[in-house]
Amino acid sequence: MNYNKIRLIFYKAIIIFSIPSTVMANNFVEQANLPTDVNNTCAVTLADWFPSDHVVTNGWVEPADSTAPIFANSKNNTKCDFFKWGSQMFLWLTSGVTDRHVFNYTPNFYNVSVENTDGKRQFLRSNGTLMLTVRDAKIDGDIELGQAGGNDVLLSQDDSLVYYGIHANDIFAAYTIGQKKGAFAKQTLNDQFPVTDTELATVVQYAYQNNIPVIEPKALAMELKTSWVDAATISPRSDYVITEAIVPIFDRSNPKGPWPVIGQTRKKLALVGMHVVGSVNGHPELIWATFEHVNNVPDNTYTYINSNEENSTVAYDSSTNEWVFLPKNLNKPTTIAATAKIDTTTSPQSIVGQPTPAPGATPTTVIDAVNVIRYNPWGNSPAAQDKNSLASNTALISLNKSILSQLNVGDIRGNYIQTGSVWTSNGNVPTSDLDSKLTASLTLSNSTMETFHQHNFMPVDGEEFNPKNCFSCHNISNGSKKNLPENEISHIFYDMEAVIE
Predict the structure, then answer these.
(1) What is the mean pLDDT of residues 266-285?
(2) I want to staple 136 with a disulfide (CB 3.0 to 4.6 A). Which of 16, 144, 200, 301 is the partner?
(3) How many domains does the chain have?
């Protein structure tokens, strides 16, 4: 099978080639409210990420080489190496035009179906149209699309439900299908996602033998989660990655709920958040990076290192943007509590008000938008003043500033920033979010996906779930010494059927 030929055909199929734009100064850094005096500890020459070696408006970006030796070299690699991996991957994933982007267009990526009645999922070929649902419960043994730690529903300030999708790439699919069919010897892959060239070659060979197209093998295994709002509720639409999706219709006539599902419809949606998760050389625990639209929410107060190598503090400020999830000029919220959740006991499912009333009682809470902020800017506590937190904050701000300042005017990707990444320094698989080897964004969350469980925002309904970061749930449970992926590093791995639909 001619890899380069397949790659070229795919690129042409989604119409990615374009002519370089006239270079003009943009205002992406200003719109993202990034401090311009940040110490430039993490920067890139953005043209190096484009195949033509020059920056192209909405043009194709090459994926990061996840097999690069630097990731496994714990003595010499830096946080910047991993942050750059996430940002390059995001620019690659959102390359494309109209509804067709890498992350939602097969053969690079597959949509992951909602669980069926047997709790199984399937890899779905995609032409750019997503099959999405609202948030649902995400608990051990019953993983659904939605928010970790509960089944809360999020509405934007303009009354759009937030919809969620899960996606997996070609290597993830080939590896999963091969594992479930017993095609790989344990000594070959050690029951973990591929992280070396040798392990990758084993998966690629299996893929080719079983007619599973592999387009970008050096991206290694990747899974994504995306969050969306109704594109009709945001402005300007040209500032957002847009896709078409099939979503449920709810009867919303009762402001207190329940809102039962009464059908489905096609709708244009705007991307507000993305988790980018993938294996890299020497890191089977996966790198967990997250991205948000700059208009989602304002940041809580945070500290970074400026160009004079002094600590500098940015205070909470809601006056700068028209926010999707917070009224402009609002004082900082003291809590972030959901007003609704999915009732999974009904068929079809429905949205009910919070708190859930006793059987037969009438819900008293109006289902409405909540006021959201990014409680832990850059994935670290707003009060953090330690060396590691300040270095991570500074590197992330520096990298975002570097990338945004080099994108061309009109590039939709200039409206998104990386808000944090977390991994382990030596590539060990953690047993919890307290592992001493965890590095970078130690309180990582996404304001659109972990909205009500951002660290230190304890739920008001008595729940105890209050994770610090992604590894609160994605870890080796109870100190077990089993290997991946048998310990739910990837929650969708167990549920996937060994077929592609």
Answers:
(1) 95
(2) 144
(3) 1
CA proximity to 422, closest of 379, 390, 385, 466: 379
Q: Which helix (H) or strand (E) holds 224?
A: strand 222-230
Reduce the DSSP state of residue 186 to 3 states and report it.
Answer: helix
For residue 141, the one-letter residue type is G
Q: Rounded CA gap, 449 and 48, in Å?
A: 32
Q: What is the pTM of this model?
A: 0.92
391 by DSSP, 3-state: which? helix
Q: 92-128: b or e for each residue (b if 16 or more CB lie within 10 Å)?
A: bbbbbeebbbbbbbbbbbbbbbbbeeeeebbbbebeb
Domain assignment of residue 275, given as a range: 3-500
For residue 452, give Cα distances in angstroms to 238, 341, 459: 29, 12, 7
Max Cα separation, the chain? 65
pLDDT band at 376 (very low <50, low <70, confident <90, very high): very high
The total number of residues written for the chain in this structure: 501
